[in-house]
Write a structure and sequence with these properties.
179 residues; eight-stranded antiparallel β-sheet; mainly beta; 15 strands
Length: 179
């Protein structure tokens, strides 16, 4: 569930028991839920976010192709390594879309050591997705949560990387105008 401007909301869910359920979105506007839902893809563990113009965006795991992103109209695979856990999605103050996700794979499909879990971030600049970069390495599976403040500062939280399973790791990212 995500809330946007003027009280708009979007609910996203996966129907079905396996990793290939229908990814369905339902929107709330003008004080009421829309009577119909829209199937936007197939997969599992979806996340939704509404931008400042009221457009819903979504990201989810696909069982065979990796991480898929939907911009409110069309979808595309943005990462070709396995996705483990619900991805996070938000936008910075420069308008770039950020997606964070957990995986047991190293980027380009090479399998990491069995006990290693990677937390990645990839960024869309409006033209193309950046190569995923490792944010954290952990012994434990994690499910990241990503949000941004009104100033566009990104805030990321996930299960800590320590051997004793630290309860929470946290990072913030501010965009600077260096021009």
């Amino acid at each position: 569930l995500s809330a946007g401007p003027d009280g708009a909301m979007a609910l996203i869910y996966s129907s079905g028991a396996g990793p290939d359920g229908d990814i369905t979105i339902r929107k709330f506007a003008n004080g009421d839920w829309e009577s119909s839902t829209e199937v936007i893809g197939r997969g599992a563990k979806p996340e939704v976010w509404i931008d400042g113009q009221g457009t819903p965006h979504a990201v989810w795991c696909e069982s065979k192709t990796g991480v898929r992103y939907w911009d409110g109209i069309t979808s595309q695979v943005i990462v070709d390594c396995a996705c483990a856990g619900r991805p996070g999605l938000s936008q910075d103050n420069d308008g770039r879309i950020h997606v964070v996700f957990a995986s047991d794979d190293l980027e380009k499909g090479a399998t990491g050591r069995e006990s290693t879990k990677f937390l990645y971030e990839t960024i869309y600049d409006g033209t193309e997705w950046a190569r995923p970069m490792i944010v954290s390495v952990s012994k434990y599976q994690t499910q990241p949560s990503l949000t941004s403040s009104d100033e566009g500062i990104l805030h990321l939280a996930w299960a800590g990387p320590g051997q004793e399973r630290e309860p929470l790791a946290f990072a913030s990212q501010r965009q600077y105008d260096c021009g």
